[in-house]
Amino acid sequence: MTGFSLVDKNIVVVGMGLTGLSCVQFLLAQGAKVTAMDSRNELSIAVDVPLYLGAFDAAKLCKADLVIVSPGVSLQTPALVQTIAAGINVIGDVELFARFNTLPVIAITGSNGKSTVTHLVVEMCKAAGMKVLMGGNIGVPALDLLEQNADVVVLELSSFQLETTQSLQPLAATILNFCDDHLDRHGDMQNYQRIKHRIYHNAKFTVASRDEEATQPLDRLMDIGFGLSASEQGFSWDKNTASILFQGEIFLSSKECLLVGAHNMLNIQAAAALAMSAGVSLAAIKQGAKSFGGLAHRCQTVSMSHNVRWINDSKATNVGATQAAIQGIVESCQGRLVLIAGGEGKGADFSPLADLLEHSVDLLITLGKDGDKIAALKQDAVKVQSLEQAVKVAADYAQPQDTVMLSPACASLDMFNNYQHRGECFIKAVQELSL
Predict the structure, then answer these.
(1) How far apart are CA 428 and CA 384, in angstroms?
(2) Strand 309-312 relative to strand 300-303: parallel, antiparallel, unpaired?
(3) Coil, strand or helix: which one is 310?
(4) Using one digit for the tens of pLDDT, what is the confidence trace for 332-358?
(5) Do 167 and 206 reside in the same domain of the chain?
(6) DSSP 8-class letter at 201
(7) Final residue of a domain: which of 236, 262, 291?
(8) Which of 375, 335, 337 is nearest to 354 (CA)?
(9) 303: which strand partners?
(10) Both 231 and 343 in a single domain?
(11) Which end of the chain is more exposed for a tag (fewer CB within 10 A), N or C?
């Protein structure tokens, strides 16, 4: 949408986080008369417009020509309910972006995997020689991408952002999956799904899971599907060859990818379908998929030294995350699996890991405050005093085709500043093996 003028419009921006500040700067550049509101009683940053802190003032909101609400602010806030009832247009930053944007957009949402798929699409587009911009719910606010030269914009979108978006016209859009999430904000699963489905409105191409019907467009057939079931159409998975298929033919072997796990094979498929919709060649899609090692500290392949895969999953700070990591890679693990775990357990029950440790993990190495509790779940577990020692023990044990994974199932604060620091120490220790 173009030709939308904000000159001399009285606009209130609600919420002064990163997105709200981006909105203020954009609106001022457009010649609008801007007022800001934030529910906090103190704000450590300077704002170059009138700023009202504390409870939102419904009277001021109802006098605005337009209200821009940040994703973190619920539309059920009483002052906003009153504003909407008064007929004031209440939108979010992505809707504002959509009204000014002239570039093709690839739009991505879902309960899990959004960031990985967004980065994958970017890598695939770059491999094709395209200039690509990335933002939205990740990294850069959408408005900051306007007026930059690019071939395509890739947006990760949350349900909070989609709730206030009507005008976005994606070249390609997807809902990756659904699980119970943000129901404290959206009320129930039906409403949560309804909001997510806004991403398909006005989309030229739709990409959805073949195996999860709830992700598929409601009023049209999906253009390209993906899934772990075999199919002659779109992207699918062949368990026997551990390969991604396209139109029923082998497209990409999981052995060629740095990403591991069934969930990541779905992520690659979804990204490939989106990139293809934007005109990216199959060769570039493969190149991007092969070169992307994952987001930092999230099942991230950090080395393939001596044909041993080293995985940094330091962000697995609870039992459930480590369960998912083990389950995700066990089928693609060609050799044995070595797990490094332990840290500050925060009173967690580690027993749900017992079966996986017994049947899927060949060597368990533990450390940290609650490492002994995890070690008690598996016979012959090795206890160490430091992460560097854990890496050394793993290196001495590992053979070609084996996988070594740091997935602690614990917080890091007993030994590290945070999970990022823990992951960086792991990477450093792995890198020093080859020195």
Answers:
(1) 18
(2) antiparallel
(3) strand
(4) 788 999 999 999 998 889 999 999 999
(5) yes
(6) T
(7) 291
(8) 375
(9) 310
(10) no
(11) C
